[in-house]
Amino acid sequence: KGLNDLARRAGLLYFGTAVDNPSLNNSKYLSIAYDTSEFGQATPANGQKWMYIEPQRNVFNYTMGDAIIKPAKNNGQMRRCHTFLWHSQLPDWLTSKNYTKTELISILENHIKNEATYYKNDCYAWDVVNEAFNEDGTYRNTLWLWTIGPEYLEYAFKFARKYTSRQTKLYYNDYNVERVNNKSIAIAKMVRDFQRKGVPIDGVGFQAHFKTGSTPSYEEQVASMKQFTKLGLEVAITELDVRTLLPDSAEKQAQQAKDYANTVKACKDTDDCVGVTVWDFWDPVSWVPDVFPGEGVACLWSANYTKKPAYYAVADVLGED
Ligand code: G3I
Question: Which one, 39, 77, 171, 295, has least CB within 10 Å?
Fold first, then answer.
């Protein structure tokens, strides 16, 4: 049995992976990505981001998103859609000009309206807002914050609810929130604030970009997720990977295996943690080496397509009663 089979038997909705457009011409890669016993869910790593979807103002291009979403849908895999609003990977027309608050709110609505309508029946969940907080729990200083103010978050979720289908789960997604810390506490405060004001939100995504040997403990991860499930939200592990300082070794692989398994077990054991998505499954296409020189091998499958100890540790933890 593959990871998705095991995850479903353990009560999760899916075990999934990010897929990026350059991988789509690699048939060996695709034979794993489209194997529904391994992966029951796909997330476009880049294809639905603003710079690709709306490269010119009010000109929409769904080619890159479709290339990931359509085959997953045809294949019976769930889709987590990513992302309406982020501070990164924005088109030049948006970042190189100063818009007024009113203009920027209408640009945001128009973007969400078009993308949400186009993908209306295609997404189990949308990452409506990605990475809006700093480590200390203050709002990240972005063009959204300084032009619109903190209420840009409310606008994004309201627009998302207005234009997605009713069943689509609306998520806030972030990293370094897998412990109870200033950042996750600030997000929980935002959720309570939304609930008081009637702003729609259904879930919180824990990216879980980790480093071998220094991940949050099982207990810390469960405790952080519970901050949100006790408010009635679902949670998910949305971008799991565990990067290693190179060169790799058998010891490091064994540690990485424990780290992966801890996170998957934390989700499995938390009511209302719906699934785990890895931020790609094959080492050579991981984002890690580009951003962290000297680190890598963060995925479940190695360059020669063998399953690493981390794969078997995840399978074991999903298979345990
Ligand atoms: O599109 C250009 C292409 O034209 C050019 O030839 C090529 C040369 O390097 O670059 C391409 O753009 C790259 C883009 O991915 C598409 O492949 C960017 O340089 C590269 O920086 C970008 O990286 C992505 C990163 O987000 C951007 O911040 C990663 O693939 C993607 O995995 C990563 O995903 C993020 C999540 O969205 C949010 N959470 C963190 C996660 C990891 O950073």
Answer: 295
